[in-house]
Structures are given as C-alpha cells and as structure tokens.
Amino acid sequence: MDLPVDEWKSYVFQKWSLLPKSIQDTISTADALRDIFLHSSSLLQPEDEMFLNNLSRGYFVGKDPNAPPFYREEGNKKFQKKDYVGATVLYSKGISHSRPHTVDISLCYANRSAALFYLDQYEMCLKDITRAQMHGYPERLQPKVMLRKTECLVTLGRLQEAGQTIRDLESNFAAKPTLAAAQFQILQRNLCRLKRKVQEKGNLTETYTATLTKTFEDMDLREENEQISSASSSVSLCIDPLKGRYLIATKDILPGELLVKEDAFVSVLNPGEMPPGLHHGLENKWDTRVTNGDLYCHRCLKHTLATVPCDGCSYAKYCSNECMQQAWDLYHQIECSLGGLLLTLGIFCHIALRSTLLARFEDASKVIRKLCSEISNKDMCSPESENLVQILNYDLGEEGERHGKTVKIPVPGCDINGKYENNYNAVFNLLAHTENHSPEYKFLCALSVSALCRQLEAADSKKPETAAPPALYSELNIWGIAMLKHMLQLQCNAQAITTIQETALSGSKENNVSNSRQIRLATGIFPVVSLLNHSCSPNTSVSFISTVATIRASQQIGKGQEILHCYGPHYSRMGVADRQQKLRSQYFFDCGCPACQKEKHRAVARPRWEAFCCNQCGALLQGGDILSCGSMSCTESVSRDHLTSQLQDLQQQVGIAQELLRSGKLEQAVQLLLECRHDAESFLSAEHSMVGEIEDALAQTYAALGDWQKSATHLQKSLRVVEVRHGPSSVEVGHELFKLAQLFFNGFAIPEALNTVERAEKVLMVHYGPCNDEIQELQKMKSCLLNSPPIPLGPSL
Ligand SMILES: [Zn+2]
Ligand SMILES: [Zn+2]
Ligand SMILES: [Zn+2]
Ligand SMILES: [Zn+2]
Hints:
Layout: H1 6-17, H2 21-29, H3 33-42, H4 46-57, H5 67-80, H6 84-97, H7 103-118, H8 122-134, H9 142-155, H10 159-175, H11 181-202, E1 235-240, E2 244-249, E3 258-263, E4 266-269, H12 292-295, E5 308-309, E6 317-318, H13 321-335, H14 339-345, H15 347-359, H16 365-377, H17 386-399, H18 424-428, H19 439-462, H20 470-474, H21 476-493, E7 495-503, E8 515-525, E9 533-534, E10 540-545, E11 548-553, E12 564-565, H22 576-587, H23 594-601, E13 621-622, E14 626-629, E15 637-639, H24 640-662, H25 666-683, H26 689-705, H27 708-726, H28 731-746, H29 750-768, H30 773-786
Parallel strand pairs: 9-12
Antiparallel strand pairs: 1-2, 3-11, 4-8, 5-6, 7-8, 10-11, 13-14, 14-15
Bound molecules: zinc ion (ZN) (4 copies).
C-alpha cells in the first residue's frame, strides 16, 4: 500500500541485481540524492515503462459506461432487502462511473436519495435530489423525487420550502393531465398527508437549525505557540546533536491538555483493498465490495455515504462539490489521468508527487526554487549541515548543561525569524536518512519517481494548454529529486491517519453493541507532529478529525520533560525485542525509552497478559523453556512448547466461534466460547489476552441474543484484562467502557449506565477531547439517562 505493488518491486529489484557492479557501486555510494536520481533515471528503459504501464492498466480508474446500470441494479437488490447502506454505496459506484449530465447519473443520484431518506439522512437526501435534477432527471419521474424532497423538508422543519415544493408539484399536475389516474390518486393522497404534516409542524417552534454545526470550537489551542505554528505555548522546540529536534514542556501539563493541533501538509487516502481489475471474465469486472475509497472523501477524509465523483475519473470521490473543486485546483487536475499509475506506485510515491504539487501554491515558491536549486547543486541528504552541528557543539559545550534548556540556534525547517511552520520548507527539511536506506530501496524509489516524471511530461505534452506552471516541467529533474527526497523521508516521517470504524455484527440491528476497531485511513505528513520523538510508553495520545491531528497529554508532564509519542511499537502491544528491531529497521535508531530499559534489564519475566498458570493449583508458571509452578507446595512443570501449541489450538477454536458469531449462529457460538473459556482457565492466567478475547466475544454474543446482563458480566471481565494490559486510563480501556456503557444503557440499568458513562467520558476525554463522536454519544446517553422517565427506554436513541 505504501510502497509500489509487488510486481513492480520485484521487477526493479531484479533489474538492480542485473546491473554491472560498477553501476551498482556508483548508486550505492552516492550520497547526494541528485546523483542517485540522475543515475537511476538514465537506466529507465522504454520496456520498463511499458511493464509499469501494463500494471497500471489493471486498475479501473476511468469511467465505464456499462457500469452504472449494473451498479444501479445491484443497488436496487440491496434496497429491496432494506440494506440501505449497502445500496447507497453501490449507487455511489454507479455515479462514479457515469458521465455528467446523463440519465445514468441522474437515476443513480435519485435512487441514492431514496436510500439516504430511509437512513434518516435528510440533508444528504436533499442534496442528491438536487444533483439528480441538475443532471437531467427524467420529467415523468419528477413527482416521485419532489414528494421525497417535501418529506425531507418537513422533517427538517423547513416548512416554507416544503410548502413551496407542494405548490410546485400541484401546478405541475395541472399542467400535465396525462398522469395515469391511479398514479394521480396516490400523489394526491401523499400531498394531503404532507400538507397536514406541514401544518402540525408549523405549530412547533423551529429548533432544528443549529444542531448540525458542531465545530472545532472546544478544540482550539488555549494559547498558540509563537515559535511553532499549530502547537500550544506549553511546549518549546529544542535541538540536540544526538536527538535532533524535539519538544519539551515549558510548564506543568495536565492529562488531556491539547498540545498540538495540526492540519496535514499533505495526505493521501488509503484506498483500501483495490485489487487490479481482472482481465478474465466480465462478472468480476465491477467490484461490488466496499472499500475506504467508497466511504471517505479523498480530500478531507470525512466519512460520507453520498460521495461526489470527479468528472474525469471513477477513482477520486469527494464529500462535496467544494472538496472536489479544491482537490482539482490543488492537485487532482494533474493526478486525474495518472490514477492507475499512482495506485501501482503506492501511497509514498503519491504523497511525494502531491507534496511538490502543493508546494507550487505557497508564498514560499521562491524558497522552493531556491531549495530545489540548492539540492541539485550540493548534497541535500542532511539538512543539519556540518556548519550547524559545529555551532551546536560549541553552544552546548559552553553551556555545559543542556537539560531542559531551549538552545537558541537556527533550527532546520524554521524561517529566518526562527518560526517553525506547517509549510513546504518544514516538510523539505524532514530527515530523509539517505545513508541508512538500502541501495535497492533507493533504486526502487528513484526509478518509480523517474517513471512518474516521464508520465507527467507525456501527459503535459498532450494538453494544448499547460495546467501546471511551466516550472514543474521545465525543471523536471529538480522536481524528481525533490520527490525522491520525499519518498525517502516518508519511511520515518509518514504519519498514519487513523479512525475508529464501527462494525455492527450481523443479526438484528437493535440488539447489537457496536464493535469498534481502529483502521488506517490515510497517510500524511505533519511537520509539527514530526518534531516529537518516540517512546514505547509515550506521554501523549494522537487522534484525528478529518485531516487534523491532535496531540493531547495522556498523563501529567512536568515542566522541562520531553513530549513523546509512539511511532507504532507500543510496549503493551509488542515485546521489547520486536520493538527494538522494528525501530531500528524502519526508523534507524535504538530505543532507550524507560519501557525498553526496564524490560531489557529485567530478567525475561513475561507480562501478565502472556502468562501461563499451573493446571494443578492455578499459580503462575515461571521459567524459560521449561516452566515450573510458582507455588512452593506444587511440583508441576511443563514445557513452553506444549503450552504454546495448546494456546494455538485454543486460538483456532476462538476463531471458529467468532466466525459463528459473525454468521449469526449465536447459540453455537456461545456453546463453543464457553468451552474455550473452560479450556483457557486450565492453563492461562486470568489476565491473559486470550481470556479477554474470549470474554469479549461472549459479551458480543450475549448482546446479540439480547441478554444484557450476561453480556455486561462478560464485558466487565474483558475490561479487566484490557486494564491490566493497557493501563486503567488508556484509550483501549476508554473504548471498552464505551461499549459497557452502551450495554447498561440498552439494558435500562440506569445507575450502572450513568456510572460507566462517566468513567468512559473521563478516559476518552483525555485522549480525544470533546469533539469526538464517542464522547458526544456518551453525553447524549447521559442526558437521556438523567431525564429518563421510569418507563423502559427503546434500545436506540
Ligand atoms: Zn471532503
Ligand atoms: Zn479525476
Ligand atoms: Zn522503547
Ligand atoms: Zn501448581
């Protein structure tokens, strides 16, 4: 996904292995990106480009005129089965393959408006009706959508508009006496009903308006940092020859305090599994599966069921016309024809291109030209030039002590006034670690970028008028070198943009507790977030809304302490050896964080979530390959291999049970899970993560069966395991508490629900702040519970 597809990767690696040793050496030993790029670029042959183009053609990124009727049909099937979400996505796929101003597109929009209507998405429904009409919705079908429009307007309390639509409809009838009598009657009846509704509603005050506009208000930095844009004044930027740039606290910081709120300089949606189109057989040609690319705006990453596609391709989809236009102006006019190639070359290459395209728009365009000419002239692999390091050494030597002290020296990425901002200059100065990447990897990146440059050139020469400023093409090599630099930077500086995706289980809709999981939505570059160093037990928490990253203190941070976040390998998810290996190979450093030091120096006692226990007396087992019982009075001992294979068997059984649960075979799932739990008790510690998994699955199954009490009991056990593993104030515990709160709420257990809602709110607030969806849901639950009448509540709000 980040890197090019495997076929291209192995093609390039093979090409590399066949290069004469002398050329390999030239590229391997070149430490200037310019040389790497130019050497590699000169080796790109027409047959290589042809191979790559063939791969790119495997992706369906154009518009296929035969696709819309197919998707509409498939959508209608889902609609009939009342799967309105499924229908919406399929209509969207139909829309993305339709040309503007065709019957196809108007019918797909109209059908989607119906599905949205049943999903209570009235605003979106109205927009789709307008779009259907804009693209030439057939006259004879108009009454249908106008009735729907009226219903929406009434529900939204926009009564005047509703009245107007009714009047329009009536005058339409008068003008067309050709309507069949039966049809006419149905319409008349509907009109009467709607008129009554308008009257009834008219008596109520119109309170619907302002509810939807919840913005970032509560999420602003209390005081913006003068030195670093997008950061709070509670932090300060420092530099150190060993650590590079880093942030420290300038005052005591409390848990939950917002430290950084930064919009991505650039981001690219991860389209999800988008298998190359299959060349064999038409039945597989149009994919009906749903991917992230169908559900999230390709520019702002907002979740949406009603996407608007690019007019030129079927691949780029947006939440609104505004986003579509912005994306077009900023980068998509150049990317549009390159969709297949960009998917083949992977997200890193795509981000590299987009970064340079975005750079064109900055005031600093002169700076970029300057930077680009600098990099083409001299070594650009380490922005911390020798000069700078000398100044540093001198400064620090004189000072003797540097702990917690802000060193006033020019920091790479800052402007002349010493301000660090979210701009191309800062992005450009992120470390590329040229010397640490393998020669093959550098060759792969350079060759991919060269191929992209040639396509850009070719695409440009086809157009009569150049869409991009001439600079892009006249200095293509310079842009190529810049893109290569970005590709190399991304391995260490790419930030995964994640979101919590709710997956409802099969079975009846009301009886389910949502199961949320974190998914990787996009990859982006955040120059300010990139200033933070890594720790396996960080003191901050990162979350995202749209393309904006927020970093909050997850615990108290004392004045002078470093602000740290986790690059991925977290101590509660990975053992110390794996973490060290990962950090070394991907980020090129040895982690010396407190968690690593503690674990390295402690005899390899395994954490409790991995511990085995004695099947005779239940005490914890200890030891290496042979484990013996920790209890003095017990002589039990057993080999680790035996226990490991027992655990694997159990894992398999649990997998089967989860599958049963997914396919709705609930009774069987319960049966198997209870057996698994019995088995687990015989050899796993009560806090083993497998025990937690089993309890969680039991909770879900009982919830699906409608047994709130049993479900809550099991969820509480799973919560305890999560607590041991991730800590009581971790975001993981927050999500478990959220689930538990939903259960108590649905089960009318009011005091328990209130208590759990408050606990969940407290934990999640620290990590996410007040704008988070779950927090808002919790607040709704709370107000509902506090005002709840003594009669049982419905299962959903
Ligand atoms: Zn958008
Ligand atoms: Zn396009
Ligand atoms: Zn560490
Ligand atoms: Zn024992």
